[in-house]
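User: Structure please.
Assistant: Input sequence and predicted structure:
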Amino acid sequence: MAPKVSVVVPAYNVERYVARAVRSALAQTLADVEVIVVDDGSTDSTAAAALAAGDDRVRVVAHGANRGPGAARNTGIEHARGEWVGVLDADDWFGPRRLARLLEAAEATGADLVADDLYLIADGASVPYARQLRSGGVRARAPYPIDLVPFVDSLLRGKRPMYSLLQPLIRREALLRTGLRYDEGIRLGEDIAFGIDALLAGLRFVVLPEPHYYYRQARPGALTAIDRGPFLQHFVALHDELAGTRPLPPEARRRFLRFRAQYAELYEVWQLGQLARERGPLRALLHLAGRPRLAAALVGYLPEKLRYLYRMRYGRVAAAGEPAPRGTLEGVPA
């Protein structure tokens, strides 16, 4: 008999983290689960760490070489047997009621994709510093649908929920019917492309505004930890590609291009910082003096960055759900 949910764990050189991710999937109140760890060409002991739970619900599928997160997710999807398929990044983890609550929401709403809020937690911390949707202004108490325009709008900087960060459960029948897969040519931002493709395919995406997913941030070696300049350049190029290859309706396209402009602006701010480091603050100020638009961007960006750093350092959010035993978080041993 096929399991109810297949949890796909794409993993690359995460021997320190993957065992916790796997344990959290196995410790769900929903017992009808399989875990598929896709070892994406790791050079450490990721595969052995993934199997440390000694549970026959865990399978490891190995890539002979690193092919990127999109390819690893697609491999997991191809091996999945569950009615629902979900992705758990190998450095993150689930709260114990996550899958049960998502399935309840999906049944109540007829969703093809259903996701929950995220607890944002810094690497090495024991307490989340924020909730992603709540921080973005979401005050809903019940599951609610999103379509393409709010998904794209959420990519814009500012006080907005970022729906592209969510990790939905996906109805396997919808994957088979539409042929939807992750774009393997995108190594950073593949979730953005996947969400857009799912909504363009007409799939119903519902969000449960309660958090059950722990999203680890600032992990050394993560793709998102690459140098800021190349990171920003990548997202400018990514949005050029997606705007050129996806049939976005006019309103979604306008918002999408605004997001692209924001990343281009942030890249200019980064270049200004590089100039100050390499040639001194005075040279940077002279450069800034003739560029009022860049000065305005800098004035807007710095408070935002300081708020982010302050929240990551000092923010605290109590984790909901069952009481956790001493020395654990949400009942999942560290």
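The CA atoms of residues 149 and 249 lie 9 Å apart.
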